[in-house]
Amino acid sequence: MRRPLSPTLAKLAEEELNETPDRIQQDIIILRVWIRQQPHLRARTEDDFLIAFLRRCRYSLEETKRRIDRYFTHYNLFPEVMSNRCITQRLLEINRLGVCLFPDLPKGNNRTALFVARFGHFDPNQYSLREIYHFTSMAVEIIALENDYASVAGICEIIDLEGANSDKMRRFDKVFFRKWWNFLHECSPLRVREVYVINMPKDIQSTILFLYNLLSAQVNYPIHVLKTPGELFEHIGKEYLPEEYGGTNGHMAESIAYMEDLLNSYRSYFEQDQQYGTIEELRAGEITTYEAEFGVNGSFRKLNWD
What we know:
The chain is α/β, with parallel strands linked by helices.
């Protein structure tokens, strides 16, 4: 049973994502039939999972098919992150580090959901970046299914570099990061709408600015490098920021506890994860159908790409 959206989010979903409640079930059926027809593809077909991808692709069925295919293809292409995804004590420990946080309540009307990444808050001698992103891939999938603000309005990311240093940057795996970046932007069910970088140490400034210039040229959303954390108030209201950043949106410890509860509730979900992926030897050429291009019953799908 799908959760009904609030009136504000329902209006946003209709105006920005082309979501029409009367058509959602038809789209889900089309996707399920298509998945069954792909001999190489082993994909999830739950309502909430498919809706998250439909929203990410603004209800273009053809783009949704491509993104779902890419997502499960990465089970093979990116095993460092997409294999052995299960809820372990080690994973819960990583969550408790507070490296990647999704502050939850209270929420604004049509604000994007916040994601806070604090890469200086883990010891690379104890936890690898691969483990951090392995956890993040699971958290992102859960949030796409659980947080309607994230799936409809998208994600506002705060990258807090406090505690990052040149030693940690020397351990930075560029090949791995390139894989992660490709996965995030080509496969993820969540849209990133804007990024804010704060607390950038001087000794890694040149490296971060190089990445900033490189990534800014590849994405179509703004990446802001702020001189002080206080500048966040000019872009994000205090009511949306955690108290650690001067806001009134609860404590980060609450976000960690919220995610731990979600992770534990998704144990059986991730236990099924080994069933999914692709068998490339069985991949066949795809045929673009009429309804995929022009919508159910021939109604044209607006494609206002983000």
